[in-house]
Amino acid sequence: MINAKAETGTAGRLVSIDQLRAYAIFGMVIVNAKAFFLDPVQSTLAGSPFAEYFGLLLHQLSHHDAGFTYADSIAPLFVFVVGMAMRLSWLKRTARAHDPWAVRRSMAKRFSLLVLIAFAIYPGWLWDALMDIGLAGLLAIMLIDKRPGVRAAAAFAFVAAFQCIHTFTSYGTWSSFGRFSMDDSGYKPVLVRLLPLHEELFRANLNGGPLGPLSWVMMLLFGANAYDLLAGESRRKFVRTCLLWVFGLCSLALLLQLEWPGVKEAWPFSARTMTAPFPLWATGLCMFQLVGFHLLCDRLGVIIPTFAAVALNPLAIYIAQHLILDVAGGFKPERLRLAEGVAGLALFWILFASAAWFMRKKEIYIKL
What we know:
By secondary structure, the chain is mostly helical. It contains 17 helices and two strands.
């Protein structure tokens, strides 16, 4: 690690945003590459004393229909950091242009382009990270200039709206089970049948599906609020306020997950359905991680060197690793020794970190 201020030449307190962004990309690479480098290790460890512990590691690096694992924490963090960057971009661009609507139109074009990219790289399972970021960004455009309290209220309102749709319509049945009716597997509501490309839109029920961004936008809007806190004058207030939100959001998530006898059944805690407990818990965890990176980078003045370059080209690194793993999937090894799997995963990350370093050296920045 090296001194953050010496590396960036900027105010050290904002280094935490870049480091957090790069950490989100690192987490995505590890989780996505796990199937290629770590899953084949499991068979070689069968019967060894380490098999159980390695199985727990793989569990944390995998997505599941219910519960919250390390893998489930990464996409929310990416959306959260996008919210921080969106707020920073809004403040800088409106200060220069003095035309808020021109900035809104530009942001709308950028997030719309993300949606188009998602259509291109997620065939068959549209509702993945870039799609959710693009649609959540479009939902947030009219709120990005509002006061933090308004953005927070809007975030809760979006999640409440999605929860009501999930609870009181057949959309919840589809989100949970992949069909709109448990009695008739071919049933589709009229509103769904009227939608263009409805077969494509409802092919995969993950991350909340087409309406999932109503929940994902909570992380984005709280990211914008977190930026305002981080850019404020009081670092003590930033830490204190963030930790209060962490406690409040996570406690509410656990409370809503429970069954309320005579009032409601237990709500799923699942990234697949994106019902209320998940975005609340994930947003609280995002703020907790931001506090950690703030203390590490802004207070102690250290950074993780490979993260410094990756933070400048997160979109390029994310798309590149996704496409490479997609192509390489047919060549996945059946068995690997533990050392081979770990070394392969490390080299895979070093490949992208080196590419990011080269792009920074050549001043190549791919942004929307």
